Amino acid sequence: MRAAAVGAAALALALEISSPARGLNEDVMRNVLSSVFLAQNFTAVCVKVDPDFARETGGKDGDASKVIAHMKDEIIATMTRDEAAQIVVSAAGAARAVGLGMIRSLSGGSVEEQTDRVRALCEGTAKPLVKGVVENHDERHEFFEQMLKDARQGRG
User: Fold this and answer.
1) Each residue of 63-92: pLDDT tens digit?
2) Were 130 and a residue from 57, 76, 143, 147 both cysteine, which residue would form a disulfide, CB within 3.0 to 4.6 Å?
3) Average pLDDT, the chain
4) ∠35-12-76 over CA atoms, to 5°?
């Protein structure tokens, strides 16, 4: 699966949930932000075993860490402080749960075996996901902005 397709799939998940309420569509915002937080978490773990990970998964505006930080800022800027407080905590918790679940499944055996399994996870799962999130933002930025605008208006 192409990296952009993985990122598009993550954003498509956010669009599948719709809320009948007017105002901010919190589900969309939470799901989009969760994907970004998961990419951030994977990047933080994977640079420990592959120092080039952030650069290799980056985009036209810098390494993955920089692009992901920019994406978070864009998303959070569309919300009020009160809205962001709930959504950020919820999205970060969901991303942390997914990431920790994946990492915990790699435990057991020697340190070298665990490191090899983390490396394999980073190469086979994290790299395509992070690259997809970054590429999707780079290649479909207008769509990203429209999605945030629609979510701000309560549409999903």
Assistant:
1) 999 999 999 999 999 899 999 999 999 999
2) 57
3) 85
4) 45
Alpha-carbon distance of 112 to 61, in angstroms, equals 35
Widest Cα–Cα separation across the chain: 53
Report how far residue 66's alpha carbon sits from residue 135's, in angstroms, rounded to the nearest whole number: 13
Binned at pLDDT 50, 70 and 90, residue 13 comes out as: very low
What tokens were used for 89?
């905590």
Identify the three-state secondary structure at position 90. Answer: helix
Burial grade of 112 (CB within 10 A; 0-12, 13-18, 19 or more): exposed
**End-to-end alpha carbon distance in the chain:** 26
pLDDT band at 135, cuts 50/70/90? very high
With H, G, I as helix, E, B as strand and everything else as coil, classify residue 72: helix
